[in-house]
């Protein structure tokens, strides 16, 4: 597996539109090629949208978005923050700092929601550790204004 932390930028695209918001957990989907080097599974890390504040996030890389399998690999992140608006087309900066678990199949939506909630709690705890906290302040999240690509 590629070593963590793993930094990348990815454009938010439309996902499958069939699970996240309905479950109360919207996930910003990225094109598959954004994270070519990480093994499938659930990660935690930091994310910043529009060069704004850096928030904790959970990242899922895998073949089972929501509870239905698909032939297409999905890369999606739930950012632990309440956004006023959707941000399709933005290019968030994300860094994966740690690995939580491999991907799994779920027999029910309730089981899925419950494990996602556990993963979110784990991400919150982990990101408070000093070794992860220091990545929040990484220069990667503070791109000079003339280098910002999407006008924000
Ligand atoms: P899709 O199937 O198109 O990915 P979702 O139901 O997963 O639809 O919703 C994802 C969208 O919700 C994101 O692309 C983003 O614009 C928006 N969104 C709002 N709040 C968040 C959040 N906290 N984390 C991730 N995406 C969010
Ligand atoms: Mg999504």
What can be said about the biggest beta sheet?
A: 6 strands, antiparallel
How many alpha or pi helices? Answer: 2
> Helix share of residues?
10-25%
Q: List cofactors, ions and other ligands.
A: adenosine-5'-diphosphate, magnesium ion
* Mean pLDDT metric: 86
Identify low-pLDDT runs: none
Q: How much β-strand is present in the residues?
A: 25-35%
Overall shape: it is globular
Briefly note the structural class of the backbone: alpha+beta
Q: Within the largest sheet, what's the order of strands?
A: 1-6-3-4-5-2
End-to-end distance? 34 Å
Structure write-up:
The protein is α+β, with helices and mostly antiparallel strands and 152 residues long. It is built from 2 helices and 6 strands; from the N terminus they run E-E-E-E-E-E-H-H. Helices cover 17% and strands 26% of the residues. Strand 3 and strand 4 form a beta hairpin. The N and C termini lie far apart (34 Å). The structure holds adenosine-5'-diphosphate (ADP) and magnesium ion. Residues 12, 14-17, 20-21, 26-29, 78-79, 81, 83, 86-88 line the site of adenosine-5'-diphosphate. The site of magnesium ion has 5 residues, from loops.
Please supply descriptive tags for the structure shown above:
about 150 residues; alpha+beta; 6-stranded antiparallel beta sheet; 2 helices; 6 strands; binds magnesium ion
A few lines on this structure:
17% of the residues lie in helices and 26% in strands.
Write the layout of secondary structure elements.
Elements: E1 6-9, E2 28-30, E3 41-48, E4 54-62, E5 74-79, E6 93-101, H1 109-127, H2 130-136
Antiparallel strand pairs: 1-6, 2-5, 3-4, 3-6, 4-5
